[in-house]
């Protein structure tokens, strides 16, 4: 259903030249980072204020027109694709850091601020925003997917790092969901409800986020193992000893090879752990020593600590580019990215079974992940023009979600549902999925906010 | 409206002798720990299984009969009082620890398990459940008020420590809201929605909670200050330096005097901080030293570290009895307990203004709190038979909530809304309060779950 002309006129009156129907604009907002087919919105809106966002919502409500938010478009399950058409609300022009409160270690930001931009602005304060999904995502998008990343094992996910939100509801009402207090027992946790809602309940127009103090000392290391088992056992033992890692990442041998080829690195083609510790100088030294013993017990090698910032930056840049390295390892391929998260005691089993399953298929699927949380991804590389491969990747992904649930885990540790996981929601949530639908209908009775996502489709 | 006879018959068929209408039973479930007038339920149900709870919900729904959950009845805002009559669902017989998963550091428990009972069962595992609201509350009650307490500054509140719930909805449906995975982006955060909902959206019949490793070393201390200002400044500086406290509690001179009289302690009648550090032996020593310097800079005295378990137990028992000590300081009094939480930079101002306000009134109001979170309480001691005093206490409490909001904080840091804070919800939440009502109506369309609480009353 195309957007009615009156709606476009009304939106144009509000936004002027910031309502775009240009081909390239629609096209850019109709693609995702992964395998999903193109789905173009009818128009892209670039609001600059909460009032404009509220006006957009009211106009869309009046004309029954879908509206789908767009942050940086880096989500991996086709989240931001306007699959029912309508208006794409692109938040890139709402990209200001409104307030930094160093003494309270929080900041108030607009949703289009990227995590890198925020951290640049924070540099002088000795504080940083810890959630780190590799991609340079927006804070609004990260909140909406309940993102996490390499540092969640220490600093938590977006669930833990958003204190409060300003949200525009489907009918244009503007609400605030919290205060700058560190905790509250005053009413239903609406902040928590909008975090992870993928834009299906409202549009986030402002976030108050927690910040962390730059640690006095940081130390990072990478080490290789002969097999996945001992690498994962190292993670489990480290957690159980209560050693507070800031990051602990796993990459398998396929990923190591891909990174070597892509970034000129020289990792042995083996499974690796990449770790980082934050704390006082002596605390970090103590942690590094204890961790080193566990690595040695598990036959890990090539283990070397570095406290030099440039080495660390090189290490994490490599890790952050691992997805693109994997993509490049099969020229022309697109990816289906899976996202299991299981209790840590089941991690080795989950990784081993997944690996065996992929090995039996004819699709490459490097594995990497935030193993400190029990979370890992297989990057299933498929020829976009080969439906047999895509079907095979979906079958593997489906078996991974079944495996996650069988092992007491979740179908998505951090990427979210979007289009790709909708078919698995019933298996994870059973009748609780209906409750999500009831909440959706209460807040968005016309079903206009990112339609086709998150809830059971009639 | 009394409960219809058919409803009682049906409930009796399910529960047999575990449906009680005895006077003492009704009376015991009609009182709270604080100043609220008695409000008796029509009957008390003691379910033993989730199926019985679901049957109770279905019968109540069929007969339009209110149902209000009861944990340990220690909540401070009249939360568990059945102010519209109906059935009180007492969870004390669902008090089993169902499963401890030491390797994953989680446990599955029934809602009637108390935090002390859980920690006794955990002793042999080297793990503990950290959330500590002083009172020996139930896990179901603690989840429902989003409780925290002395250790939240380090380990978080119930929001952070509940991984998943089993919930019986108003119509008797049974749902699960999560898995044992440490994080998830799969759908709306229903766990977070039921945590803090005060039994107005569903009855919690099972909880999966996070556990923590017993720290290798613990060190505690208490120190006195000449005035509130330097005590609070000590807290702020400690947080800003990133020293990881496990507990940091404030008591003012009135509380110190009350504790001396009640427990035979010998605190100087001055403001005090009580702190505890958890970590490795060297880590704790380092933290204690750094903290000691801050205390000295702020003129703190009598500062002494103790790592002996019996000293620590004595200290925290004293702290946990502070509420009863304050009550006993005015024989025959009842209490109105306030519960501000503000950004840490506003803590000194909030405490000082509150103290000045109380000093100008004719009511005693010792102040104490979990200052590491910016959270503190005034215990306003009133003669229950003197309406003028009660009115004065309410006026002070009202001004405290206004102060909290003016300083960017919340009207309740941890106790919740119950009956006492309902009148302040609009001020904190504005139109977001209506959204809570919309969610309530979606999940409990007949308005039977703990009616009269949480949402705007028509
Ligand atoms: C190389 C690579 C690595 C990645 N690594 C990680 C990782 O480690 N961890 C992780 O969690 N994710 C990871 N991701 C996924 C992605 O970065 C996250 O999902 C991120 O949170 C998306 O943010 P975005 O700004 O790109 O949002 P978008 O993709 O633009 O949108 C995501 C969803 O949020 C909605 N939305 C966006 N803005 C708003 C708003 N203001 N209000 C309401 N709804 C809104 C959209 O409608 C959509 O449903 C990775 C992606 C890539 C490409
Ligand atoms: C001396 C003292 C000190 C305290 N200190 C603190 C403190 O430091 N921090 C703090 O947070 N609180 C504190 N409290 C308050 C109190 O302990 C908490 O509010 C606690 O969480 C209440 O638990 P409970 O089991 O007693 O619940 P109850 O009082 O029985 O019930 C509380 C609410 O939860 C609902 N409920 C109970 N069980 C369920 C269930 N299974 N499903 C759904 N709803 C349910 C009830 O209907 C009610 O609305 C203190 C209280 C006292 C008396």
Automatic annotation (TrEMBL), chains A, B:
Recorded GO molecular functions are:
D-lactate dehydrogenase (cytochrome) activity; D-lactate dehydrogenase (NAD+) activity; FAD binding
FAD-binding PCMH-type domain span: 37-214
- Which Pfam families does the UniProt record give? FAD-oxidase_C (PF02913), FAD_binding_4 (PF01565)
GO BP annotations, alphabetical order: lactate catabolic process
How would you classify this enzyme at the top EC level?
oxidoreductase
Q: Which cofactors does this protein require?
A: FAD
For this UniProt record, the keywords arranged alphabetically read as follows:
FAD, Flavoprotein, Oxidoreductase, Transit peptide
Known EC number: 1.1.2.4
Query: Where does the source fall among the domains of life?
Result: Bacteria
What PROSITE patterns is this protein classified in?
FAD_PCMH (PS51387)
Q: Which Gene3D superfamilies match?
A: 3.30.465.10, 3.30.70.2740, Vanillyl-alcohol Oxidase, Chain A, domain 4
Q: Which PANTHER family match?
A: D-LACTATE DEHYDROGENASE, D-LACTATE DEHYDROGENASE, MITOCHONDRIAL-RELATED
Q: Which family does it belong to?
A: Belongs to the FAD-binding oxidoreductase/transferase type 4 family.
The molecule here is called D-lactate dehydrogenase (cytochrome)
Query: What organism is listed for this UniProt entry?
Result: Rhodovulum strictum
